[in-house]
Structure formats: structure tokens, C-alpha cells
Amino acid sequence: MSHVLRRSLTAEQPVIVRGEGAYLIDSDGTRYLDACGGAAVSSLGHDNAAVRAAVTRQMETISYAHTGLFTNEPAEALADYLIAHAPDGTGDGRVMYLGSGSEAMEAALKLARQYHLENGQPERTRLIARAPSYHGNTLGALAVGGHAGRRAPFQPMLIGVDHIDAAYPYRLRHENESETAFALRMANQLEDRIKALGPETVAAFIAEPVVGASLGSQPAPAGYFKRIREICDTYGVLYIADEVMCGMGRTGSLFALEQEGIAADITTMAKGLGAGYMPIAAVMASQTVVDAILSGSGRLWNGHTYMSHAVACAGALAVMHEIDDRDLLKQVRTLGKRLESGLRDALGQHPHVGDIRGRGLFWTAEVVEDRASKAPFDAKRNLAGRLQTAAMERGVITYPSQGCADGVQGDHVLIAPCFTSTGAEIDRIVEVVAESITAETS
Ligand code: PMP
């Protein structure tokens, strides 16, 4: 019996003992093809020798020294790497390291506040985010998130955050509305909300470039983020890009925002940064933000004990080098096409699949009871959970979600295979996902 406090206190879970490429192996010897890397975490599979070697080497020299006094070589090299690969505009930015995506979001919100204070605009305290969205489970990140189900129990304890609609074409795009018109209509909600709140009171807008858990994997309509950037610039509002799930190569470019042709003021990243080998997250600040701090107080008003942990940074740096050395972004784009066309062929006409969406190796099927009305199955059916079990019984791990438990969205099956997958593994994932959906909806 495990001593770990499990999410479900009664669940009997298999004990995982080993990883082999894209496979997880439990104590009974059962092998599971990992089609989601947890929640889009394990981008390099489960037994990467280069990362293991880098982590071991680092432990043999120095693991930890407090960031109040010291930096370390892997932390600096990783920051150089991230800044050099950031979408245009980050210039001479800087990076801070944290332990999880939620912590990174908290740090990003505080950094936005610090920026405005350093700039002599203390009245800028308001945050605007989107719904549906998910930005983490700590109280600040939960408040920013537009995830009805996860917010509900903690609602009275959450700071006030304004929400506009996330761009979700399957349900929000009008019939006969062009993609461009839809993108503008959605983005202009931000301008309307800034004006309604008073532009001088708004600190930041928070959005994922490609939405993860709350909407499956939802890219923005073309032109959406260009308009968002314009609006933020017009009103002096910072844009915080949450790349915790969609970043680090998952969508075919290191940062998902690169494909939108704009840069963020503050970027958060986590999952794929350590690729599951290290629990590490980061916040990258653009030069504008850094300059305000350097010409103001000159120091960061945030700190955690394990920031810039040398072993975590060495592991993440090795993950980035693997992506480059093995040309894995190209692999993501190639395998992504195979995954997309496999899903469209197998499920495009399925009576209970309403939408298939994604980018790179980040794809989702939204399952609905009625394709014509887009009505979801009754939540009591726990279809998302059943779809996960059905796939697992067939030896494949997927990431299920009941949308935001808002009763509006259907159940999702999210697929985020490792970048090192073979074509045959991608085909097998598609086959099992299609079989599971058919089995559980008929
Ligand atoms: N932001 C996004 C977009 C996420 O998907 C997540 C995790 N699913 C988080 C933040 C929070 O990250 P963590 O679970 O590491 O705290």
C-alpha cells in the first residue's frame, strides 16, 4: 500500500517502475504506450540517456547554493538559451526559475505588478484573463484561470480577476463568420474590457498561445494575437503568455507564440522544460520589464528557496540540447501531420466527435452526444474518465478532461505524444483512441 496521499484515496493504481522510450512499465510488467506524457510533459520519452548523464554530472559538482548569493553555470546557460530562442522582442531579457507551472504563474503576476510599480503606476492592479482557461492550482493562478470546476470550491478565497471569452471556434464562431472576423471579434473583447475597467487600472492580460487542458489543444484563429498585442500596447497593459503546456516544442516551434508573429512581455514555461526529468519552471521577462526593474529598485520582489536549482537547470538545458541535436522540432511537425491526418481519417465523420483541433504534437478530439446540436454527454456518465480507462485497457495512456466541468463543452481526449515517437506508435495511438471513443459512445 502506498503512503502517498492519492488523488482518489480509494483508487488502486499500478506502480510504475521503469520507462523505455515512449513506454511506461509497471511492477507487473504491463507496458503502456504513453500518448500524452502525463499532461504534455514527457517530450523526450522516459529513458533519455543524455539528460540522465547531464543530471548526474551536475550532482557530482554542485547541486544547490542559495540564489540570494550565487548563480550557477547551468542556470546561466539555460537562460541564455531561452532568451536566444525567444520570439522577437525579448531582446536582453532575463529568466527566473521555479518549481512548477503554478509557481511560474504566481511569479509572472507579481512581476507584472512590480513592473507597474517601478514605472510609477501603482493603480495598475487589475488582471484580465480568459474563460475557459487553466493556469494552475495555487490561489493566484486559480483565480486567473477560467476553469469553473476547479475554481468552485475556493471561489470565496480567490482574488478578483476579469475574464473574457477564450477564442473557441467550435462553439463561438458564427456561421458564415470568417476566421479573421472571428479573431478580431474575440480579441476586441479585451479592448472593451480594458476600457470598461479603466485602462489606467489594468496591469496584465493572461492567455495561453495554444490553450491546453481547459479546451483540449486549441490554437488561436489567425490574427488574434496580433490584435491582442496591439491592444496591450495601446493601453500599456502587459501580455503574459502562459506557455506552461504549449511551449518547449510541443506545437512545432520552441515557443508556441512564435507562430503568431508577436512577442510577450512575460512568458511562463514548465512541463516540457524539464520534460519530466526535472520539476522545473521558468518565467522569462522581456527587456522592457527588466529595464523598468533595473532603473527602479534594481531587484526582484520574489524569491523561493529552490529557484535556479543547479541540477534542475542542468537537466532542462540537456532537454533543450536534445531538441536541437536531434532536430526534434522538425520531427514534431512531421509526426504532427501524421497524427492530425490519422485522427481526421479515423474520427472526422464519427457521429460523436464534434471537433478535432490542435497543432504540432498536441491534438484533441472533443466528444459530444449530438454532433448537430454539439450537446455534450451528461457529465454523470464520466465519459472522459471512461475514455481514459478504455484506452489504458488497450495499452495506451491518454489525457482525459471534461472541459472545464462547465456543462458546455464535451469530453476531451488530449493526445501529446513524445517528440521521439515512431510513426508506428502514432498510428497505434490513433487506432486506440478511435476504438475507445467508438466503444464508449455506442
Ligand atoms: N498553466 C498551464 C497552461 C497548465 O496547463 C498548467 C498545468 N496543467 C499550469 C499552468 C500549472 O502547472 P503546474 O501543474 O506545474 O503547477
TrEMBL record:
Lineage: superkingdom: Bacteria
InterPro entries the UniProt entry points to: Aminotrans_3, Aminotrans_3_PPA_site, PyrdxlP-dep_Trfase, PyrdxlP-dep_Trfase_major, PyrdxlP-dep_Trfase_small
Record-linked PANTHER family: AMINOTRANSFERASE, AMINOTRANSFERASE CLASS-III
Assigned keywords, A-Z: Aminotransferase, Pyridoxal phosphate, Transferase
GO molecular function, one term: transaminase activity
Cofactor: pyridoxal 5'-phosphate
Name this protein carries in UniProt: Aspartate aminotransferase family protein
Organism of provenance: Sulfitobacter alexandrii
Family classification: Belongs to the class-III pyridoxal-phosphate-dependent aminotransferase family.
Keyword Transferase: yes
Pfam families given in the database record: Aminotran_3 (PF00202)
Gene Ontology cellular component terms for the protein in this record: cytosol
NCBIfam families per UniProt: PRK07483.1 (NF005685)
